[in-house]
């Protein structure tokens, strides 16, 4: 997501840990993916309201930290009228999209396991 926003000119990372990247390597490759995994684990069996509450709990801290960094450091700059609300919505949407994808994968995996168990049982009966 960061790559697309940087390429489109909405975000800029003037100071970079690795000069070959235009994005925040720490956030894009470590903090966000780990947070996304924790969100999926925390909401795996949650209902819709509980999921939305947890979505806020996971998205808000990232947004607040990013907003603070944008206002007090040169690590990130918002461009083209990008705001913290945009960051919050994009982080939240990404969490939800990954949750949906994981639900589909889990459903597919459980169906495959069920079919395998049925095939094994049929083979044993023969």
A few lines on this structure:
Helices cover 73% and strands 3% of the residues. It is built from 4 helices and 2 strands.
Order of helices and strands: HEHHEH
Strand tally is 2
Mean pLDDT: 79
Q: Indicate the overall shape.
A: elongated
Number of helices: 4
Main beta-sheet annotation: 2 strands, antiparallel
Radius of gyration: 20 Å
Broad structural category: mainly alpha
Helix content, binned percent: over 70%
Q: What fraction of residues sit in β-strands?
A: under 5%
Strand order of the largest sheet: 1-2
Low-confidence stretches: none
How many domains would you count in the coordinates? 1
Distance between the termini: 52 Å
Transmembrane segments: 20-39, 81-102
Organism: Mesobacillus jeotgali
Keywords: Membrane, Transmembrane, Transmembrane helix
Protein name: CBO0543 family protein
Verbal overview:
InterPro entries: CBO0543-like. With 126 residues, this protein is mainly alpha-helical. The chain has one domain (2-125). Helices cover 73% and strands 3% of the residues. The chain has 4 helices and 2 strands. The protein has helices at 2-7, 25-43, 48-72, 84-125, and strands at residues 11-12, 77-78. Strands 1-2 form a two-stranded antiparallel ribbon. The longest helix has 42 residues, at 84-125. The relative contact order is 0.12.
């Amino acid at each position: 997501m960061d790559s697309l926003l940087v390429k489109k000119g909405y975000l800029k990372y003037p100071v970079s840990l690795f000069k070959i990247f235009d994005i925040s390597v720490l956030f894009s490759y470590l903090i966000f993916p780990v947070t996304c995994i924790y969100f999926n684990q925390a909401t795996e069996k949650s209902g819709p309201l509980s999921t939305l509450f947890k979505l806020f709990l996971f998205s808000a801290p990232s947004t607040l930290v990013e907003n603070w960094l944008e206002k007090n450091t040169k690590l990130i700059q918002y461009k083209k009228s990008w705001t913290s609300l945009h960051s919050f919505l994009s982080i939240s949407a990404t969490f939800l999209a990954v949750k949906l994808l994981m639900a589909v994968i889990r459903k597919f995996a459980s169906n495959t396991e069920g079919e395998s168990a049925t095939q094994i049982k049929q083979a044993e009966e023969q």
